[in-house]
Amino acid sequence: MMRFVSLILIITNYIGIVAFSVSGSIKAIEKRMDLLGIITLGFSTSLAGGILADLLLGITPPTNLIYLPYPTASFLTSIMTFLYFRKFNIINKILIYADALGLGAFTASGASLAYHLSPSPLLVIMVGTITAVGGGVLRDILANDIPLVLTKEFYATSAIIGSSAYYILAYLNIPAYTNSSIVLLLTFFLRVIAIMKKWKLPSIN
């Protein structure tokens, strides 16, 4: 069972790494950064959230820094984005959907990791959310933007809902693969619908 759970974590991690590497790389390209800047934002966006989650869970050194296929996947994705981004005619849409997919994948990955270490609802929700949004926060800071998670966007809220759903489904003994798939898709579609419908949280204007 644990080997199966580990496989699910690896799959969702790779989906998130590729999606967030594209998101971070395109952000760097929009900011006219050079190749090093593109790789740095791709790496930060895709791996920083997982590094922070591991540290919070007492996993040291963080998996993203010692399991070389993860940073390698990030570097290669960033380089491929750098080489072929001119062929994209709808960069903004690619960025939006890549970011939403990464959000869903890392929500599922972080929530799953936390649940199987300690099935505490607060831990699962916090780690799932931090894993999902941590890299994006660092990306925006490095790009000199206000982090999306701190604005009115329905962003971190999608990850919170997805992480909560993971805990509920796991508590109901839904199989890990099915649970992770549901959470990934739920978080992804929540984010996409929020963009389309312009959902925003209340704020003082």
TrEMBL record:
Topology in the lipid bilayer is annotated as: Multi-pass membrane protein
Would you tell me the Gene Ontology cellular component terms? plasma membrane
Which Pfam families does the record associate with it? Gly_transporter (PF03458)
Q: Does the keyword Cell membrane apply?
A: yes
Q: Which residues form a coiled coil?
A: none
- Keyword Cell membrane part of the UniProt annotation: yes
Name its cellular compartments. Cell membrane
- Which residue range or ranges hold the Glycine transporter domain? 11-84, 97-170
Domain of life assignment = Archaea
Q: Which UniProt keywords apply?
A: Cell membrane, Membrane, Transmembrane, Transmembrane helix
Q: Transmembrane segments in this chain: where?
A: 6-23, 35-59, 65-85, 94-115, 121-142, 154-174, 180-196
Q: Could you identify this protein by its name?
A: Glycine transporter domain-containing protein
Organism this protein belongs to: Acidianus manzaensis
